Fold:
Amino acid sequence: MITADDFRHIALGDVQSTNLECLERAREGDPGNLWITAHRQLGGRARRGRSWVSEPGNLYASLLLIDPGSPAALASLPLAVAVAVHGAVSRALPPGARRPTIKWPNDVLVDGAKISGTLLESETLDDGRQAVVIGCGINVSHAPEQARYPTTTLRAAGSAIMPEELFSRLCQSMAGQLQQWDRGRGISAVRQAWLDNAQGVGERINVALPDRMISGQFREIDAAGCLVMVDDDRVVHTIAAGDIFFE
Structure:
């Protein structure tokens, strides 16, 4: 049974990146199950090497896990992370607020605007252990203006929650989803929870790949978390990485 009490927590001030802080501790021999939060990130990063604005007032948190599952199982871990962040955001919204949704692969949207993002990184350590870092950023009071997608904050959604309380809810939600995921053995239930809260399944979407844009119907996600879509020529595409835009 995994609970929030199974994790340690270090709160820092200004850092380059909470993910980097976790990786540095892993290289120094940290046993894992460690949360690191920061007041501000000076070098925050997003997926595909993009920078991420990290002003004070938001939640910046990274979780270090050591050997959380086999390499094959780790492909589905982002699904569990997305469901965990979605749960924390859901419980932070005021009564009557619209239910948040998950945008593939692991962003959480409120009223169609991005309110959080995650970045998972892994590294094989010198002693052979696998360090996996789950980085979570949730917009509490500040939203980046230069993002490629509309953004919002919990404040704009009517929530008065503070980052410290939000972190407590994230920690609890993440523990529950890691328990459900169970080193990849529980992916079926996690995948269903992801689909139950997803935006755009069955709808027409555009997917930006590194070299082109393709359009078609968002069919589902597979057990590895890949997006399955059918283009206008009825060709089925299984996409591991890309940016989707809803029509």
User: Anything to note?
Assistant: The first strand starts at residue 8 and ends at 15. The radius of gyration is 17 Å. Residues 163-181 form the longest helix (19 residues).
